[in-house]
Write a structure and sequence with these properties.
The structure is a single chain. By secondary structure, this protein is α+β, with helices and mostly antiparallel strands. It has 5 helices and 7 strands, in the order βαααβββαβαββ. It has helices at residues 11-24, 32-38, 45-54, 92-101, 118-123, and strands at residues 2-5, 56-62, 65-72, 77-83, 108-114, 127-136, 139-149. A hairpin with a 2-residue loop joins β2 and β3 (65-72).
């Protein structure tokens, strides 16, 4: 597995991975209505491309295929972290998260973790600050605001 920076040419494959991951990996924790609200199959490609380009965005690649991706902004907000359904529990999310956490000079990393992702972040030392309901296309989705303090960097 290789971790590299996001390229605009990755966008279509990332969007397919996002949709497929939400509708398979998260299906045990969310209803079909919630999954469709989260990933409706009609993403705003321009907005996704802008957001990924403005953040530190990384992709995991194996045999020429994107197996996962994630992004974080300069303030330490880990926005997205998704792993292809066929590459779950193989260290892809951990490798991406390690690289993303190291990509910013922030004292804390914060994320909005899905019900599915919450245990992964807990194992990484993130603490749940609160449970929240996010409304997407008129449908409520439960997720958790989580935060992790990073060790002080040596100067």
């Amino acid at each position: 597995m290789t971790i590299r920076e996001y390229r605009p040419s990755d966008l279509r494959e990332i969007l397919e991975l996002f949709y497929d991951t939400v509708h398979t990996v998260n299906a045990g924790d969310y209803t079909p209505e919630q999954l469709n609200a989260w990933a409706d199959g009609a993403p705003d490609m321009a907005e996704w491309g802008r957001s990924l380009s403005e953040h530190a965005a990384l992709v995991a690649v194996e045999d020429g295929k994107i197996t996962g991706f994630g992004d974080i902004d300069a303030s330490g907000c880990l926005d997205r972290l998704y792993v292809h359904r066929d590459f779950q529990r193989r260290g892809v999310a951990s490798a991406l998260c390690d690289a993303l956490e190291g990509a910013v000079a922030a004292e804390r990393i914060a994320t909005n973790a899905s019900i599915t992702a919450k245990p992964f972040f807990e194992r990484r030392g993130y603490q749940t600050l609160w449970e929240q309901q996010v409304i997407r296309h008129g449908t409520a989705l439960t997720n958790y605001r989580m935060e992790k303090r990073l060790p002080a960097q040596n100067a």
